[in-house]
Amino acid sequence: MNPRFILVGGFLGAGKTTTIARLARTYTDQGKRVGIVTNDQAADLVDTLSLQAQGFDVGEVAGACFCCSFNELTSTLENLSEKTLPDVILAEPVGSCTDLVATVIRPLAHVYQQPLSIAPYGVILKPSHGAKILRNDPRGGFSPQAAYIFRKQLEEADFILLNRIDELSTSEVDELQVLLERDFPDRPVLRVSARRGDGFDLLTEFLDRRGSFGLRKMELDYDVYAAGEAELGWLNGQVQFAAPQPFDLDRLLLDLVGNLRRVLSDEGQETAHVKVIGMWDGNYAVANAVSSFTPAEISLPSGAFVPRADVVVNARVATDPQSLETIVRQQLSDAALSIGGTVRIDSIQSFRPGRPVPTHRLN
């Protein structure tokens, strides 16, 4: 049987990695072999390390989105199959990308020479920014160009996942459902919590449906799209913390992300997603913040006290990359002081994404 290819889209901070991890565990528990492909504009991706730390077979496409690195995507798919062909391949695209049906799903079906069974394309709604964007709130946090990307992601979906229902009141969930049905009336909406697993029985049943998917024809203004992506400052960094006495790894990461979110908010710079992973001697923890107006959280706790920690920082913020790097460097130094230790910065990349130029576009 051909491998089932499942692409899970959604804006930065929507919960794609948590969703993919839960789906991977679900399929593994069913006795299926699972491969995962992550994607980013640069190397040093928290999502890849997080999924690998959870025991999954993960390939990474770094340096550009799937659509602009289609040949690298297919090579990564083939590398996953070198030992044992996966039954299910879960793919997580860059959270600022859209037009994935025309540039990824259709080329996989009609250009790529290896047979894949394409699942319905699901896009995760990020409630924190989604509520503001769908209401047309002028204080939505992003420019109209970035909001354009957000809406276009939902427009091309076969179905929409309304995620984080465990964090919302019933009235908030109902309002989001009404807004989605108003703007995207022919898309099924599934209510889920990737963290708790609510709605995942229905999700896996939906992903098992057979037929032709990715058929929506979507008009896209690539000038607006490129401007929306260029609004975001991108930062990936690798550092190591060390202290004379063991320190609380979870607390270090939570404080680091929380302080980054607070300082960025004070500067009027909207957070799309800040995520960090800390690792040492088999222990690992992940903390993240998904907007300037929601608190930081530990999404994967370690419960560990460690003398050192290798930490990877990924930040996507509506600001100038150099300003973002300056703030991150200062917060890393402050975090080291908080544990009475030191921080060594091994690498930092900060930049704006370039204009998307798809390898293929079948519309």
Summarize the structure in words:
This protein has 363 residues and is of the alpha/beta class. Helix 7 links the parallel strand 7 and strand 8. The two termini are 28 Å apart.
Structure characteristics:
single chain; 14 strands; alpha/beta; six-stranded antiparallel beta sheet; eight-stranded parallel beta sheet; 363 residues
Structure at a glance:
The protein has 363 residues and is α/β, with parallel strands linked by helices. It is 36% helix and 27% strand. The two termini are 28 Å apart.
Q: Rg to the nearest angstrom?
A: 20 Å
DSSP strand count: 14
The SSE string, one letter per element, is EHEHEHEHEEHHEHEHHEHEEEEHE
- Return residue spans where pLDDT drops below 50 for at least 5 consecutive residues: none
What is this structure's SSE topology?
Layout: E1 4-10, H1 16-29, E2 34-40, H2 46-53, E3 57-62, H3 70-80, E4 88-91, H4 100-110, E5 117-118, E6 122-125, H5 127-134, H6 144-155, E7 159-162, H7 170-183, E8 189-191, H8 200-207, H9 222-230, E9 233-248, H10 249-266, E10 271-280, E11 283-289, E12 297-300, E13 305-317, H11 321-338, E14 342-351
Parallel strand pairs: 1-4, 1-5, 1-6, 2-3, 2-4, 6-7, 7-8
Antiparallel strand pairs: 9-13, 9-14, 10-11, 10-13, 11-12
Helix pairs in contact: 5-7, 6-9, 10-11
